[in-house]
Automatic annotation (TrEMBL):
It holds the Pfam family Rabaptin. This is Rabaptin coiled-coil domain-containing protein. The keyword Coiled coil applies. GO terms for molecular function: growth factor activity; GTPase activator activity. Residues 45-194 form a coiled coil. Residues 1-18 form the signal peptide.
Amino acid sequence: MFFFFLKILFIYSTEIETASERGNTSRGSGRGRIFFFPVSLQQRVAELEKINAEFLRAQQQLEQEFNQKRAKFKELYLAKEEDLKRQNAVLQAAQDDLGQLRTQLWEAQAEVENIKAIATVSENTKQEAIDEVKRQWREEVASLQAVMKETVRDYEHQLHLRLEQERSQWAQYRESADREIADLRRRLSEGQEEENLENEMKKVCRKILVCRSVRIRTQDASADLTAATADLSISCTKPHCVMPCVSLGSS
């Protein structure tokens, strides 16, 4: 429509120049002669003004539709944010469970330390009982560490699988969303109106939100995996996990 409007303006300017030349010729050929623009030229000017008004109305309508679709996109975005908050709450609950396991391990180690102190006082008369306590302590610590290792191993495996799947989905959604956004921008810049434009923008909005959700979950999962692995390494290499047995045996 815009190029058609420019073409009409060019024809209009050409006719005005031709009419001006004819008017100058007619004025040079005799005195007192007055040149009037032809009726067809006046009609053409009226048509151009009408086309210009229609173009402005169409442009205003496109802007209104774009504002409405932008408001719908904002609603979809806020809804997805609420969904992400719920997912983060579930992840936080899992992290709390893991923290409880760590607390139980530390409590067991503290209890062993107390038993060690009591057994040291009567070591000469109760060596066999002390040996039994040490054996039970080793078994309890080994059992708790095995549970921790197995839990972290399973959690790490699940996170790796989920990370790979979500990375692949993120790449696909992002590529598809970029293509559709570029196509929508091209259509808006050309002033095209299509019946399914609103549905396409909704699809793009959903894909953008899914990309963001996948990216956030991937970052959170990576951070949780790193923290869990580091905590397990620290718990398994703490000196007080093995020193009680050595001190009891050497005293």
